[in-house]
Write a structure and sequence with these properties.
- The complex is a heterodimer of chains A (about 230) and B (about 160).
- Chain A has one domain.
- Chain A is built from eight helices and two strands.
- The termini of chain B are far apart.
- The chains are: A mainly alpha (about 230), B mainly alpha (about 160).
- At the A-B interface, β2, α2, α3, α4 and α5 of A face α1 of B.
Chain lengths: ~230, ~160
């Protein structure tokens, strides 16, 4: 069991070692996997959206259209009226995290199990949240926003700048790590049938839920920032 | 396990942005283009339908007005015809009256002329008879008795001639 954990958690994450910077500039395997995921997603988008027509649409086009409208409804509903312009980005993040979480189905290690990817995602989120607030309120009002509802809690508001992305990235990372660890354990204990059933929960359901939670919280922050 | 690489974070950010731009341009962009076009077509069709409806309503109103004015026009035409009829009637009656009067005048005139002529004929006959009687008287010797006979004879003759 200990060997298993060592294998899973202490394996070398680096795909390419950069000799300087003490591993700070290594290219991780998770990035390579996410490249593959993104490549597949881009190919899928290009294939699914080619030859769109206004009339006499194909089933493929109808499916894509209803999917786009649905996912926009989901993210737009979370963002509210003021933040509806960010719905496409949130939809993209939702699709990306969902796809990343589900590569476990194909036997690969999910990129979201690596802290690097979740840190990058939450960094993007907090930058987007603050940019949305800045854009909406202007610099002066945005600064004053830290002292609301009362100046006493300004330090907490400033701390939130770090806490929010930290919680976002840790939540996603921890959940996916946990799910993957549990799946690995189950595979060791009972290699047949059981993992397939539980993988439906840990890879598909949990993956989708975590992607949704990530997008939901980011949307909530944006909604708060632009109100 | 918890170590982080700046290069990998940068790569992931770049990956995400790349995916976002591709999705924005192709997935959302293409769907939006179709939806916008479809909406435009629907708007256009709605506008056209509205126009056609308005046109139909206008035409209907026009016809209704026309039908309503047909009664008025009918009355107008009828009264016109009646008027014309009266005028014609008056003209014919007047003509007939005039002609009748003329005939009457002519007849009167003719009768007068005839009368005059008859008078002249009587006068001539009377003259002839007077001359005749005078010559007969002159030719005979006469007494008062003869005269009386003669007068009687004259009167009878005159009466016979006059019949």
């Amino acid at each position: 069991m200990k060997e298993l954990f060592n294998e899973l958690l202490k394996e070398d994450k680096a795909f390419i070692h950069v000799p300087y910077g003490n591993g700070l500039f290594d290219l991780y395997k998770s990035v390579v996997v996410s490249w593959i995921v993104i490549g597949i997603l881009i190919l899928l988008i290009l294939f699914l959206t080619h030859g769109f027509k206004v009339h006499n649409i194909s089933k493929r086009q109808a499916a894509v259209e209803s999917f786009v409208l649905w996912i926009r409804g989901v993210t737009g509903g979370m963002l509210g009226e003021e933040g509806v312009r960010y719905q496409d980005y949130m939809a993209t993040v939702l699709i990306f995290i969902c796809a990343c979480n589900m590569v476990g189905l194909f036997g690969a290690t999910p990129p979201t199990m690596d802290l690097t990817v979740t840190v990058a995602l939450s960094l993007m989120s907090i930058i987007l949240v603050e940019a949305a607030g800045l854009r909406k309120k202007g610099l002066g009002k945005w600064f004053k926003g830290f002292a609301q509802p009362m100046p006493v809690i300004a330090p907490m508001n400033i701390l939130e700048l770090a806490i929010r992305p930290l919680s976002l990235c840790m939540r996603l990372f921890g959940n996916i790590l946990g799910a993957t660890v549990i799946m690995e354990l189950i595979k060791h204990v009972m290699p047949v049938i059981f993992p397939a059933l539980l993988s439906v929960y840990f890879d598909i359901f949990d993956g989708a839920i975590q992607a949704y939670v990530f997008v939901f919280l980011t949307s909530l922050y944006i909604k708060e920032a632009v109100e | 396990m918890l170590n982080v690489s700046i290069l990998s974070i940068g790569c992931t950010v770049f990956n995400l942005l790349l995916l976002f731009f591709v999705a924005k341009k192709f997935l959302f962009g293409r769907v939006d283009a179709v939806l916008v076009k479809r909406m435009e077509e629907v708007d256009e069709a709605t506008l056209e339908a509205e126009e056609a409806k308005q046109k139909a309503l206008n035409t209907q109103k026009e016809y209704e007005d026309k039908i309503a004015s047909v009664d008025v026009e009918k009355e107008h035409i009828l009264s016109e015809i009646k008027k014309k009829g009266y005028v014609e009637y008056d003209r014919i009656v007047n003509d007939a009256k005039k002609k009748g009067e003329q005939i009457l005048v002519e007849a009167k005139h003719n009768a007068e002329v005839e009368n005059e002529r008859a008078k002249e004929v009587y006068a001539a006959q009377l003259t002839d008879m007077v001359i005749d009687a005078a010559s007969k008287i002159a030719a005979t010797k006469h007494s008062s008795e003869d005269d009386k006979k003669l007068y009687d004879k004259f009167i009878i003759e005159a009466g016979v001639n006059n019949e």
